[in-house]
């Protein structure tokens, strides 16, 4: 009996908080997505009409763009973040702390400020165009802002730390004696990385990729500021339907679709990585 009381006292508040502020709102959104009602609190009949509207080519284009940009963001963060995490893990302990502080501090900066900084850098009169024209690499300003490329740059900048930190934590747990043993047995370079280092750090790679993919897929501030209409993602579309068009059922259907896409992508990714040896790393 005392054990149950201890569990209720420790886990109960957090469970209740999640149930009230996460599970209950999602249930409301789920019911609204399948209802013919025009808004929360109204009676309506069961319908799949709102999900059929998502099949419209306009909305499918936005969904495909969101998935593509989220996947590219994840890949770029992994390509940039893994070497950075490996370099940090090989530093002395005192320098590791400094490197981690330098990595984390930009994440504390408000997202709006970081995006406005990229606007200053990428606009036609911005830093990049000034350098390109000053060095003679371009005869006229390039249209770098309000493109998918600008959105991709902003997303990678925003979520890179979420890739580096889990990989760094996984690399820190690697037994360095195994690395030395691999070298003694003739494994060098790519072979050493593929057979010794990567399998032991695959858990951190999975966590980092899931974090970045989920955050990038649901992003709406960065696409709105850096991409405009050309960079609209599903998060912007949901915001538009809920706050501007006031089409709550369709916005709810889009939200449910986003959650389903995230869960499906995470399951597929974990299974694919697991077949490549992720079970041993986890």
Protein model, in words:
There is one protein chain. This protein is an all-alpha fold and 282 residues long. The protein is 79% helix and 0% strand. Helix 3 packs across helix 9, helix 4 (93-108) runs antiparallel to helix 7 (148-172) and helix 11 runs antiparallel to helix 12. The relative contact order is 0.12.
Largest sheet: none
Give the helices and strands as they follow along the chain: HHHHHHHHHHHH
Record field, number of beta strands: 0
**N-C termini distance:** 34 Å
Structural class: mainly alpha
Strand content: under 5%
Q: Low-confidence spans: pLDDT under 50, at least 5 residues?
A: 278-282
**Average pLDDT, all residues:** 86
Oligomeric status: single chain
> Which word captures the global form?
globular
Rg calculated over all Cα atoms: 23 Å
Q: List the total number of helices.
A: 12
User: What percent of residues adopt helix (DSSP H or I)?
Assistant: over 70%
Structure at a glance:
This protein has helices at residues 2-33, 49-54, 57-89, 93-108, 111-122, 127-134, 148-172, 176-184, 189-217, 221-227, 234-244, 248-281. It is an all-alpha fold.
């Amino acid at each position: 009996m005392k054990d149950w009381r201890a569990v209720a006292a420790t886990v109960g508040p957090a469970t209740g908080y999640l149930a009230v502020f996460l599970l209950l709102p999602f249930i409301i959104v789920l019911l609204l997505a399948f209802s013919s009602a025009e808004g929360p609190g109204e009676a309506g009949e069961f319908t799949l009409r709102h999900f059929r509207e998502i099949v419209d080519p306009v909305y499918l284009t936005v969904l495909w763009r969101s998935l593509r940009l989220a996947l590219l963001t994840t890949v770029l963060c992994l390509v940039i973040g893994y070497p950075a995490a490996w370099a940090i893990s090989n530093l002395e302990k005192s320098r590791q702390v400094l490197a981690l502080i330098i990595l984390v501090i930009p994440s504390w900066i408000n997202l709006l400020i970081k995006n406005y900084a990229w606007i200053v850098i990428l606009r036609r009169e911005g830093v990049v165009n000034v350098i390109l024209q000053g060095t003679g690499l371009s005869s006229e300003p390039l249209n770098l802002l309000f493109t998918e490329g600008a959105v991709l740059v902003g997303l990678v900048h925003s979520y890179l730390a979420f890739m580096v930190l889990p990989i760094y934590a996984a690399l820190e747990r690697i037994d360095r004696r195994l690395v030395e043993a691999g070298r003694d047995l003739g494994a060098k370079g790519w072979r050493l990385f593929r057979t010794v280092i990567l399998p032991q750090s695959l858990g951190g790679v999975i966590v980092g990729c899931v974090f970045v993919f989920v955050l990038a897929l649901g992003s709406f501030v960065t696409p709105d500021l850096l991409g405009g209409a050309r960079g609209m993602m599903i998060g912007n579309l949901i915001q538009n339907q809920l706050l501007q068009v006031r089409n709550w059922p369709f916005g709810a259907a889009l939200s449910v679709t986003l959650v389903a896409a995230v869960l499906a992508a995470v399951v597929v990714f974990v299974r694919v990585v697991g077949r490549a040896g992720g079970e041993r790393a986890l």
